[in-house]
Write a structure and sequence with these properties.
Layout lengths: L3 H7 L14 H7 L4 E4 L5 E4 L1 H7 L15 H11 L5 E7 L5 E9 L6 E7 L1 H20 L1 H15 L6 H33 L8 E3 H11 L1 H6 L3 E6 L4 E3 L2 H19 L4 E9 L2 E8 L21 H6 L6 H11 L3 E7 L3 E9 L3
Helix pairs in contact: 5-7, 6-7, 7-12, 8-10, 10-12
């Protein structure tokens, strides 16, 4: 705040009412775009802007900083600053409810006058850098196979099958399927990147999960008929959560498509919407062959497949459940997977009920 005083004096108007145009400390704190707090010499928060209260998920004013920000390095920097020993910048990570990274700038306001703490969210910047590297690595690895297949088909058409019309038609069909596979892969990689980039930002809209489930049932009814399977919805009526409708549709559609592709032999796939205490639960249950226990912990990993050839033959990219996991994390929810060989699998999304 000492740095601001020369600026404040320079804009102070001349005349009898000198204080009317002078910004007060609280005005300056609330004008900052980043979360900001002022603590007194004892470490009690005396001022905080709305961004700080939102980030800390409570109003910290009147309490010791340690009650809201349990980061030893930041508290130590604050202690030194309130003692008049200068300022410091501290990088720290928060693991729950979703991983986030911050930089705390701690500035001394003068011996015995407290400190100013400005928090900067580094999550998005770090995620962009990580996702750029992940995208290149994943795309280069997963695209290698279909590209090699396309190259081989082209060589065959230009060579041995140059005069064979039937062979050319067959190879062109195979090339089309490989190109389609590459398109799906790129679409899923881009979708996953967008979701991960915003995973730390909780959606604020209102969504009725029963309506979402009904929409997914209607959209996939044709696919269910093609698989000779009944797609059934069982719900208790409206059930509202805070969220993004498009993303929650994507979650349920991914889960229901997987159930139809891999569990349709059970002839029934159920979408069940229930409330359990403070949680809204949406389950997608099939009655197919089930999944062996050792695979379940890894199902949401990128490109993990229980059966690689079977997944690829059904158009899978190995990214669907990774996308589901990150969307559920963004909504501050949980994904629970249960399965029994010979009896089917159940994928349950649990989200906090709104209101």
């Amino acid at each position: 705040m000492q740095l601001l005083r020369p600026i404040i004096r320079s804009i102070r108007p001349k005349g009898p009412n000198l204080n009317s145009a002078v910004p007060q400390p609280a005005d300056l704190i609330h004008a900052l775009p980043d979360p900001a707090l002022v603590v007194d010499a004892q470490g009690i928060v005396s001022l905080a802007n709305e961004q700080a209260a939102e980030m800390l998920e409570s109003d910290p004013v009147g309490r010791h900083l340690s009650a809201s920000l349990r980061v030893p390095a930041v508290l130590e920097a604050m202690k030194e600053a309130t003692a008049g020993e200068g300022g410091a910048s501290v990088d720290y990570d928060v693991r729950v409810p979703v991983p986030r990274s911050f930089r705390a700038h701690v500035s001394c306001l003068g011996p015995g006058k407290g400190a100013l703490i400005v928090l900067r969210d580094l999550t998005r910047e770090q995620q962009i850098e990580r996702m750029r590297a992940d995208f290149v690595a994943n795309a280069s690895h997963e695209l290698r196979t279909p590209l090699a297949a396309l190259s081989g088909f082209l060589e065959t058409i230009q060579g041995a099958a140059k005069a064979d019309q039937k062979a050319q038609e067959r190879f062109l069909g195979l090339m089309k399927s490989q190109a389609e596979r590459m398109r799906r892969l790129i679409d899923d990689l881009l979708s996953l990147s967008r979701i991960e980039m915003n995973e730390h930002v909780r959606p604020s809209g209102e969504v009725d999960l029963t309506q979402v489930a009904a929409h997914v049932r209607d959209v996939l009814s044709g696919m269910a008929r093609d698989f000779g399977c009944e797609l059934k919805l069982d719900g208790d009526g409206p059930l509202t959560v805070a969220g993004s409708r498009d993303e929650l549709v994507q979650v349920l559609q991914n889960l229901a498509e997987n159930a139809l592709k891999y569990g349709s032999s059970g002839k029934l796939v159920e979408i069940i919407v229930r409330r359990s205490g403070d949680w809204a639960e949406v389950s997608v249950r099939d009655h197919g062959p089930g999944i062996a226990e050792q695979h379940i912990p890894r199902l949401t990993e990128r490109f993990y497949r229980v059966n690689v050839q079977d997944s690829r033959s059904r158009g899978g990219t190995g990214l669907g459940l990774a996308i589901v996991k990150h969307i559920v994390n963004r909504h501050r929810g949980r994904l629970v997977i249960t399965s029994e060989l010979g009896k089917g699998s159940t994928f349950t999304m649990k989200l906090p009920v709104k209101g």
